[in-house]
Amino acid sequence: MAEKEENLEVETKGAKKTTKAAKIAEAVETAEAVKSEKAAKFDAMLKELDIQAFQKQEVGDEYGTVLYRSSMEIKGQFLPVIVILDASIYGIVRVIVGSKVVNEKNESDLAAYINEMNSRYKVFKYYTVEDGSLVLDACLPASDEGFEPDIVRTILDVILQHLDETFGDTMKTIWADN
């Protein structure tokens, strides 16, 4: 009798492991489905509007991240643009405004400038990263059901207009003490 109970316990533990593995597999499938649906919607919009400016890159991580890389021209400068779609409920439109531009001389003035910009604009935020680059991010809700790729186009248009108006002042702040 004790032997039967031991076998039952092992089988029960095995079933729990199988259940846990099934849940993990289901989560991965769900992440893939969300990524695929968002990416498919964005791809469809790009195709419909004959937009060929983006290079698609599937990251292959646990979030099902897909990157769409491009650039925008501002005052003769080509700024990298990345649309980031993944299995979360958010998408990101990212622009690298300046690569490795923050240094000891301009850090304080640039921080004040960024704070001013961030207080004035709701749709996007500026920040700096460890390598000294200045980044602008727009975060947008992007669940699988509610993702609307036209919002990405609208956000890009707003960012383009904003950068066209402010890029000169941004560069003056960056290069003021150099």
Features of this protein?
178 residues, alpha+beta, six-stranded antiparallel β-sheet, 49% helix
Structure write-up:
This protein is α+β, with helices and mostly antiparallel strands and 178 residues long. It has one domain: Yope Regulator, Chain: A, CATH 3.30.1460.70. It has helices spanning 2-48, 107-120, 149-175; strands spanning 55-58, 66-74, 77-85, 90-98, 125-128, 134-141. A six-stranded antiparallel beta sheet has the order 1-2-3-4-6-5. It is globular and about 60 Å long. The relative contact order is 0.14. Residues 5-12 have low confidence and may be disordered.
Short summary:
The chain is of the alpha+beta class and 178 residues long. It is 49% helix and 24% strand. The chain has one domain (2-175): Yope Regulator, Chain: A.
Strand content: 15-25%
Corresponding CATH architecture = 2-Layer Sandwich
Largest sheet report: 6 strands, antiparallel
Can you tell me the residue ranges where pLDDT is under 50 for at least 5 consecutive residues? 5-12
* E-strand count: 6
Binned, the helix content reads 40-55%
CATH class: Alpha Beta
In the sheet with the most strands, the strands line up as 1-2-3-4-6-5
Number of helices: 3
Work out the radius of gyration: 23 Å
Average pLDDT for all residues = 86
Shape: globular
SSE order, one letter for each helix or strand: HEEEEHEEH
What CATH calls the topology is Yope Regulator, Chain: A
Structural class: alpha+beta
What is the count of distinct domains? Answer: 1
CA-to-CA gap between the ends? 83 Å
